[in-house]
Amino acid sequence: MEDRLLSETLTEKVAIVTGSARGIGYEIAKKLLHSGAKVVIAGTDEERTKSAYKQLKALTEQEVIYFTGDLSNERNVDDLVQYTLNTWGKVDILINNAGGGVILPFLEQTPETLRTTIDRNLWTAVWCCYKVLPYMVENNYGRIVNVGADSVRNGLWDHAAYNAAKGGMHAMTTGLAREFAKYDITVNTIAPPAVDCEALDRIRERDDALVDKYIDIIPKGRAARMEEVADAVWYVSTEGASFITGQVISVNGGSNML
User: Fold this and answer.
1) What pLDDT, on the 0 to 100 scale, is given for residue 171?
2) What is the pLDDT of residue 198?
3) Count of beta carbons in the 10 Å neighbourhood of residue 22
4) Which of these is catalytic: 83, 162, 183, 214?
5) Given this model, what pLDDT does residue 204 score?
6) 15 Cβ contact partners less than 8 Å away, ≥ 6 residues apart
7) Nearest one of 219, 210, 216 to 157, comparing CA atoms
8) What are phi and psi of 224, to 5 degrees?
């Protein structure tokens, strides 16, 4: 029992959580901090990210730092990883949560919104994995968790561009999981449905009936709570989840089953 309890804490583990200045990422960062991890929160907006950092500092005595920059840019990811290594000397956990694509009918997308959606959701994850994995290999340990989307499986309305990005993330999960399993590095995706957060509120402002359709396909009859997604991310980040890898785990209230 004692060994099992130790496996479910993250004491002395170092985690990077992208897209964590608000929403799901913020809840994930908070969960990891409360579990004993040292956490780097990363966002694109300096003021918002610094504010999130101050809030987290007030909630816990655990060590937390912050980084701002567009992580679809390779150089910024280099800076993020080096900042983490210079501060704590390692990276044990990478949570690829940065995202937030443009949700529109496909033919209403523009070349700019398509690029933005792919960059925010897929390229951020690709660059972060590419830059972090050498250090995980060196340490013979790592947990990578991608925050994907259940819409890849259910073909949600207006999500074709978003699904192209998240589907790439899901596919990268399986490829990396097989390649790096021998180093005790697990790679998984947590795929939520509609989540009760600012992004859903923005869609509701544009099309209230569309959001109702998103929720109608969920047997639980509501959107996921951010904390529920964070709990799943936390679990596959622990040592106790050492034999779970290459999985896309839906946290979806039953909107897809089996």
Assistant:
1) 97
2) 81
3) 20
4) 162
5) 84
6) 29, 32, 37, 38, 39, 40, 91, 92, 93, 94, 95, 237
7) 210
8) -70, 150
Report d(CA 55, CA 152) in Å as an integer.
33
- Lookup: tokens for 218: 């969920």
Task: Report the alpha-carbon distance of residue 186 to residue 242 in Å, rounded.
Answer: 7
pTM, two decimals, is 0.93
Query: Is 39:32 a contact under the CB 8 Å cutoff?
Result: yes
Whether residue 5 has pLDDT greater than 80: no
**φ, ψ for residue 99 (rounded to 5)?**
180, -135
Confirm whether 162 is a catalytic residue: yes
What band does 6 get if pLDDT is binned at 50, 70 and 90? very low
CB 61 within 8 A of CB 88: no
Torsion sign across C-alpha atoms 114, 120, 122, 124? positive
CA angle 33, 36, 39 (to 5 degrees): 45
pLDDT in tens, 110-125: 999 999 999 999 999 9
